[in-house]
User: Fold this.
Amino acid sequence: MLSDRAKRIKPSPTLQMDAKAKAMKAEGIDVINFGVGEPDFDTPENIKEAAIKAIKDGFTKYTPVGGILPLKDAIIEKFKKDNNLDYTRDEIIVSCGAKHSLYNIAQALFSAGDEVIIPSPYWVSYPEQVLLNDATPVFVKTYEKDSFMLKADALESHITPKTKALILNSPSNPTGLAYDKKTLEEIAEVVLKHNLYVISDEIYEKLVYDGVEHISIASLSKEMKEKTIVVNGLSKSHAMTGWRIGFAAGPKEIIKAMTSIQSQSTSNPTSIAQKAAVEALTGPQDFIGKMREEFDKRRKFLVSELNSIPSISCLVPTGAFYAFPNTSALYGKSEKISSSSDLALYLLEEAKVALVPGSAFGDDDYIRISYATSMEDIKKAIERIKEALQKL
Ligand SMILES: *Cc1c(COP(=O)(O)O)cnc(C)c1O
Assistant:
């Protein structure tokens, strides 16, 4: 009955874990959710007001497919200010979330037989979106010793005549680490030599710590900008996951194809959310700093606590809101636990802490812990995890 495509697809494991934790909570079980992939902050008031005004003003009809001009202009301004990148309106598309922009890119660029390089560990939707568009994901393992950055020689050794694109994500979900300029320059050299496209997912741009500077690979040179589609959005930066506003910037022909594809699927992103997005990008930005400060406090506490647990070691993440501790020393300590999913299940049942096993992201040696949850919950969860692990 189902298409080959539908048979290939897996539901998002992170959303599944989140659903499981929420279901346990609904049953009255005191579960702490370390699995969340969204800020636990409320959307700022000025943004909500802009949406309410849009409704009252009757701004409730179809808009241009790729986004209203004031929003495109605000996005152009954002790229100029934050990334020193110059785009025109026909190089920008607004979609129903960054995930939707990424999906449009996959539809516009990939054909059957194309290979797409994905550094692993990876965000769960990349391989599935490649598969949904009949192309083949090619995973390149990255290592903790390299702060999970893809090395140029590893990239080059996986390139074949079929390689079409590379998907980069910095700062990264799940590792919480960001690429440095030198590594990006080395990657850019290989990319240009082999004439590949780069899809650069920069959704966590605003969440960097320890003085780390976010660098877009598109900003490295004019040549690199012509081969890059930058993806970003408001879900993480402005705590707007439910509003579904993301965007992409890149070569005109690609953006045009993405817009045509969007015109035959979702049409425009919600008119009201677009008005809210204009306010998010052009209104006061102090919210971001406050949110980042709070995340930073939790990050420091969480990582030092994790590193105090025997058999767990965790690199200090410098971006996003995830810690990605190495838990492989725990495997085999008890019959119950020989993988990251065994460990995640054990911690859910024994400690009532929900988190995502590294296997969901392509690396079984780790688990992903989100600190987009209150300090109080983090403290409680760490105590429970310690207790549960002592029983092994
Ligand atoms: C959250 C997330 C997205 C998607 O964000 P939306 O704009 O809500 O679709 C994209 N990429 C990564 C790595 C993410 O973690």
About this structure: The radius of gyration is 21 Å. The longest strand covers residues 163-169. The chain has a mean pLDDT of 96.
